[in-house]
Amino acid sequence: MAPTLQEALLAWYTQHQRRLPWREAADPYRVLLAEVLLQQTRVAQAIPYYQRFLERFPTLEALAQASLEEVLEVWQGCGYYARARHLHQLARQVVARGQPLPHTASGLQALPGVGPYTAAAVASIAFGQAIAAVDGNVRRVLARLQAWEHPRPKQVQAQAQALLDALKGQVHPGIWNQALMELGATVCTPRKPNCPGCPLVTFCRGQGQPERYPAARPRPQRSLEVVALVLQGPLGFHLEPRQGRWLGGLWGVPLEEEPGGLARLLARFGLQKAELLGTLRHDLTHRRLWVRVYRAWGEGRENPAERPLSRLDRKILALATAPAAGAARPPWPPS
């Protein structure tokens, strides 16, 4: 008798799943941390951050007791810092209540920074709730199985839940969700999927031209022109805490949006002029920053190594401290 789709996938997962540190134990805090990291970070890049974060904050209580600056320092270099800020807020909120993490997806989703996917993943993996977790990998697998070029979110969620419900308690929901995600991450990849090696190939309606499903979704990216002022003194640099949604909570050099950014920065620090060092590009999730970097001598006292800095600020300081700083001056704004 031929295996069902679920049986074929679970047999494949048992044999081929990757050995990942967060799969070694279903501790809810560790599962949550892993899922938050994996929202915007590839597995290979996430592993060292996961291990470093747990060394510093081994429990939710330890995370709650830390300052935001400590948390951002450990997260430094991982990007998408709102994840770290929300995780810190979540820990403080849960610990203040004196209760463990909620056991259901709805309860988890009420916490800071926890969306539908993360809530479902943690609820199913850590607590065994029979709820489908749909990330980009699962969406792609289901779209190809059904030959959906433009799948609707509710359509995908319903199909994922139906596959899980068909198991009728035969397997832990978290195992099934991870198996489906693993297939999308390692076999049913966005480009050049390994269809001959797929355990679901006989069930797949999109195998003839898999990259057609699902169709790519447009991701608009707004360009923003910014001026950075590197104030350098005999004891270090002028660094200040960032505010706002992007890069908030980190430290960096003074920034101002154009137009008029340089004039506002000079007036703020009582300066007449600053030296143009060059320009650089920095991509955020939905923004492309074109940064014109200036330098002036001032009352800088901060050591960059002692503050949590974003990659953007590291790039700015690298330009300011390069031996030939100011030599190359690309056109502004870039064409």
Please give a structural write-up:
The protein starts with a helix and ends in a 14-residue tail after the last helix. Strands 1, 2, 5, 6 and 7 form a 5-stranded mixed β-sheet that branches. A two-stranded antiparallel sheet has the order 3-4. The C terminus is likely disordered. The chain is elongated, with a radius of gyration of 24 Å. It is α+β, with helices and mostly antiparallel strands and about 325 residues long. The chain has 2 domains: about 210 residues, Endonuclease III, domain 1 (Orthogonal Bundle), CATH 1.10.340; about 100 residues, Nucleoside Triphosphate Pyrophosphohydrolase (Alpha-Beta Complex), CATH 3.90.79. Strand 1 and strand 2 form a beta hairpin. It has 13 helices and 7 strands. Helix 2 crosses helix 3 and helix 2 packs antiparallel against helix 8.
Give a brief description.
With 335 residues, the chain is α+β, with helices and mostly antiparallel strands. Helices cover 42% and strands 12% of the residues.
